[in-house]
Amino acid sequence: MTFEGKYYNGRSSKGMPAQITLRPDGLRIDYCADEVTDTVHWETAGIHQSEFNDATTLLRYGKFPQQSISVVDKGFREALLQCYRGAAFLKSGYNSMLRLWASGIAVMALSLLGLLVAFIVWGVPALADRVALYFPQQYERQLGQQLYTQLLQGYQVDDAKTAALNGYLSELDTDLDYPIKAAVVKSDEVNAFAIPGGYMVVYEGIIDKMEHHEELAALVGHELAHIQNRHSLRALTRSLSYYMLASVLFGDISGVAAVLVDNASALRNLEYNRSLELEADREGLELLRRNELNLQGAVLLMERLDFGSESDMLAFVSTHPNTGDRIKVLNELIGDRKQPYKKNPGLERHWESLKGRNKTKGSDTLEQNQTR
Amino acid sequence: MTTTLLEKEKQTKSFTFTGRGSDYFAIEIVNFLLTVVTLGLYYPWAKAKSLQYLYRKTELAGTPFVFHGTGKEMFVGFIKGLGVFISLYSMLFFAALSTTPFISVLFVFAFIVGVLILIPVALHGMMRYRTSRTSWRGIHMGYRGELSDMVTTYLVGFFLTVFTLGIYGSWFVVKLRKQMIDNVRFGNASLRYVGDGADLFLINLKGYFLSVFTLGIYFFWFTKNLLHFYVNNIVVLQDDGTYSRLKCHVSGWEVLKLTVGNIFIVLFTLGLGIPLTTTRTLSLIMNSIVMSGDFDADALVQTEEAYDSAMYESMSDMMDIGVI
Q1: Biased composition, Polar residues: where in the chain (chain A) (predicted)?
Q2: Is the pLDDT of residue B41 over 90?
Q3: Do the chains contact at B97 and A63, CB–CB below 8 Å?
């Protein structure tokens, strides 16, 4: 079979009229340049893969500079397919995909979208958790220490209360892999947060709101659970991996930079997800149980934080959504089996010195303020 | 009079884009799937495939362009680019972790300098790689620019732009385009960029204010003006001293229809339709560009050196990281 086409010799852009003949061992190209005719042979093995052809079929041959032919004839392509069935230069994974078109591709597109969504919803958090859990404790502690020092720079630490809080913590019977270091900072903000590696910052404002030391125990238990289960590290790796994913998808690099540079404040405002919060609540309750304290302390803490007036939207609550739900869960966990509880003079002593200047009178006025 | 006009018309060579949205969509969806399944490693091969398709469907005077780049070559660049990015980011990470402010500032400074140098290096690498892997009728393009010139042009332009509060930006863009385009060879023909910074400045000034006054509607005409400025100032010089010029006929109204259509496609397909917007955009732009003048399509002669697969190692500056 013979086809008409153009031959380019790879040295000049001049297209030479050519007759292309399909032979079993390859193509025979008879071309005509400046009224001189000549012939070249193309072995099938030397022809480059040729994809995405339309009405025009373009074939290239050999090493640089490549020769090429273009044939404007749909029959040429069919003849090639017949003559050189299975030859490497005719293979194209994409062409077979194109034949699938319509239904096949639509199904694939949808399943792909599903896959992507599944990866984002389950894959990324799972991977991030893995990374966070395998993070060496020693580095975590180093990182935590730096964040802790960095954060405290912006606050005034109350030394007396800090000593009392640390005393309280050492008196508590805990089961932690981390030595705990806590600080009470002077601020009216009702807030407290855990830093990876065993550090905790409690604001004076939240201590002022509390009336019973069991509430403090519940709060501390909650934060310790965050530390023990590496919640902040997990949340950090999670948000980092989302930023990275987004930056890969959209080619934006500033997102990752923002998280990295700003990690201290990012950590402060990290939103743990609901399941992590509930886990911390549950383990905080467990701490009360272990120390034989009144379990109602946890519920009281929640209720007290929930009744903050609208104007001073309590930071602790605003970053921990669904207080109502959490109280419900806590009540379910406490359940009917009333656990006997004891007074704990050791803890109470530290609690008193932590409250120090705020005598009972102070908390009375606080309650009056709240009910008003 | 009539004869000269006719003669001129005879010399017009047009660009065409014959790619179809559905075909390109099929290619991109396969690319995307394989990239996801291989956790991103397939990306260079995917990029090679889509470039091969887009080049093959772009024709000048009825002959398509060919992209010779391969996934393997791009993978090397991809890994290098990744390495550079990781080292740059580790600087930021160190800066964030360091307790001494001096060290922090030092690392942030190193990061900024690194990014500033990375951009011209990547531009240079991209020009070298893309041109050497592009051919038309068997004739390869090439890039003769020096890396040091590119870096100097970029850094000087960048700082002048900062010092003049952005005013120099228009001249900077033109300088950069001159650096890139003037060094392109197309066989024995070469390209020239003849745009003027002052013209671009006026286009930007007018575009900015009119866009504000018309609540953004003028933006599409602004885009059209920019497109015309970039395309219409490209001149192709041939060996015998003859030259021809690119001309783009896109109207502001067409840009508006294209942009609004693309936005709707992306929104309603949740991003799946992005390949369709690519083919729509290319077909509007390419189909409206002609080359008018004395371009002799038969007179190009191969001038590029042969490259073989071992050469990509020496193309260490090839970093296709999507800066452009």
Answers
A1: 363-372
A2: no
A3: no
